[in-house]
Amino acid sequence: MISHAKTALEQALIDGPSFQDFATLLEIKELVARLETNMSKGRERYELEELGASAGTSRRILRRAAHEWPSDVSVEHQDVILSALERLSSNSDRRDEIYQQGAEAARETSVKHTHEFVKKLVREENEHLAKDPFEAYHQRRFRLRSQDEHGGCSFHGYAPAKTAALLKALLDRAFHSEEGKEQQPRNVEQRNLDAFDQVLQWASSDRIVTTGHASLVVSVHDSDTFDWRTKFGTNVGIDLNLFDLANLSGDRISDYIVVHEQNGAVKNLVTAERTANFLIRIALLARDFVCQHPGCAEPASRCDAHHIVPWSRGGPTSINNLGFLCRKHHRRNDDSHVGQHMDIDDGIPWWINKNGTPKRNNSPGAKRAGGRKRDPD
Ligand SMILES: [Zn+2]
């Protein structure tokens, strides 16, 4: 019977099918997926491969065969749910529950959203089950593959938060250092690699540096609970735990600053080199944490310290005349203060919109700033 269907489809290819049949064709695809899954139950992967299925296809089919598959969940949805579940810790007893939630989402949202949703559930469950503060450290890996025909090498890896935060701080710094240079148009991934190359050049140069190339700033509050699950925000948007902090503060290569602060005031600084600009940036971080445009969450390492009264008109470089703005929102700021612009009132930055209404940045990112932890609004 299936060979009849094959003949019919081959004939349709010759006849030139009408677009009217497109929906039916999708239904056939769905049927084929269900059939191949049923046929493969109890089979070994090599058996499917011997019949011509690729390694990846065999794996996907067998994964489906090993699970329940409700009739109203499409094959694409089913595959992304099962793929996300592969990362679930083997200690979890909530596998079925997470699957059910995924299947429910699949009935209502796109494949992409279902995938993101199940990945999020798996991440939360793994985080909840995590017993080992060094899990990410144990899983660390980096691999530089051998050269391909063009001479280039690909690499991939996994870094614990400490390493990731350091790398991110350096990459963001490298991004900034090349702004204004004439460059051929590059996509984001090319820019990332160029920044990475810049970081490597710094690392291999013998230039003596006292303050490091990157600033990694951590905001710590007196009332934070000090157990290893506590996450401390940083200027690069990667959270660190106590072990990461302890690990970093012994290092002298970059400026790792721990800001212990209460009610927004800077209480204690640990720094390699103290310069006025540097201290101002730290105080700004403690106060602002991210771009201060309402709704924005761009981390401080990607922001400019914007002069509210322009420097060219005598505005001082002081904490009461500065606020973080990302590139996009910095461009929107009207320095003449006629259109939308940033203003400061009693030490707090506000965004004044076109109608003159002041608005504060209440994004979740902004509210993580040390100075706003007790903020009621
Ligand atoms: Zn912004």
TrEMBL record:
One Pfam family here: DUF222
Region forming the signal peptide: none
Domain HNH nuclease: 279-331
SMART domains in the cross-refs: HNHc (SM00507)
GO molecular function annotations of the record: endonuclease activity; nucleic acid binding; zinc ion binding
Region (Disordered), start-end ranges: 354-377
Highest rank taxon of the organism: Bacteria
Transmembrane segments: none
Biased composition (Polar residues): 354-364
Xref: InterPro entries: DUF222, HNH, HNH_nuc
Family: Belongs to the Rv1128c/1148c/1588c/1702c/1945/3466 family.
Protein name: HNH nuclease domain-containing protein
Biological source species: Corynebacterium epidermidicanis
